[in-house]
Design a protein that fits this description.
- There is one protein chain.
- The protein has 289 residues and is mainly alpha-helical.
- It is built from 15 helices and no strands.
- It has 2 domains: 174 residues, no CATH class; 100 residues, no CATH class.
- Helix 2 packs antiparallel against helix 3.
- The protein is elongated and about 75 Å long.
């Protein structure tokens, strides 16, 4: 991961979407090695999760202890617990169709008490497989696992009160802010807003009426109110208007961008100027082009 980080999988290098795919393709596979045949303890899962969090923090330049809940959600990266369960379940499914004279089949049949398949088959994903599911079809099994993951995420949202994760898309998938056409700086602001790094730690607002909180910036006189009027209106006041607008963006790069795309990016530019007044914004004369 340090090698990938040094050649571009970092905040100032590749896009977050590309960096997350490089991590998933080349690095996470090393963490997954052997998980399909291992009976893991809670402490083992905790270590694996911390390793994944550390690698993701290297990509975005976050602190080693920074929360990665939102980051994993917008990149559509499952937890290591889910990855381990999926690998174990797939291994057990494949073992059902092995020839009777295969070494694994012989060991399991003659030494069932000592067979690791007994404990591996207790995984949550495998125990929830319908008896009518076509187990010989990898795509069917994969789709079923994803449906279980989606149901688990829906349950997580109901029991979780964190503002930032509640503000994200309620469904699993890559967040549109990672692939919709935008400049590097504009995309960076969208990601920082999602992760709570913008506005960041509240400080005295230049307007002099309040602190730079997410709540205040909706009504800050330094941000033109006409821009907010062009955003879609949420059904109730509990949903932040900016979060609602970002979550209403098209889920495909092939779909046309909404009419409020430029006002949205302009609002985030104003917020960045307010919260980080020492930055260089002179080169940004147009937004969303």
């Amino acid at each position: 991961m340090a090698t990938l980080n040094s050649v571009g999988a970092c905040r100032s290098g590749f896009s977050l979407l590309l960096s997350s795919r490089l991590y998933k393709t080349f690095v996470r596979l090393k963490f997954e090695y052997g998980l399909a045949i291992s009976t893991l303890l809670k402490q083992d899962i905790k270590v694996l999760e911390s390793i994944q969090d550390k690698c993701l923090c290297m990509i975005v330049g976050g602190h080693a202890t920074s929360s990665t809940i939102v980051l994993k959600h917008i990149c559509n990266l499952p937890s290591m617990k889910f990855c381990a369960d999926a690998l174990m379940a797939k291994f057990c499914i494949r073992s059902r169709f092995l020839p009777a004279q295969c070494l694994l089949s012989l060991l399991h049949r003659h030494h069932t008490v000592y067979s690791s398949l007994v404990s591996l088959r207790k995984t949550h994903l495998l125990s929830n497989l319908p008896p009518t599911l076509k187990l010989r079809s990898p795509s069917v099994v994969k789709n079923h696992f994803e449906s279980i993951r989606e149901a688990g995420f829906a349950t997580f949202l109901q029991s979780n009160t964190q503002v930032l994760i509640q503000a994200c898309h309620p469904v699993l998938g890559v967040d549109p802010i990672l692939f919709l056409p935008a400049s590097r700086v504009e995309r960076g602001r969208l990601i920082r807003w999602r992760m709570g790094w913008l506005p960041g730690k509240p400080k005295e607002c230049p307007c002099g009426s309040d602190h730079t909180s997410r709540r205040h910036l909706l009504n800050c006189p330094l941000v033109p109110a006409t821009l907010f009027e062009q955003l879609p209106q949420p059904d109730h006041d509990q949903i932040h208007r900016l979060d609602f607008a970002i979550s209403s963006l098209p889920l495909s790069s092939q779909e046309p961008r909404h009419a409020y795309w430029i006002p949205l990016l302009t609002i985030l530019w104003h917020i960045d100027v307010i919260c980080n007044p020492d930055g260089n914004y002179s080169y940004e004369t147009e937004h969303g082009v």
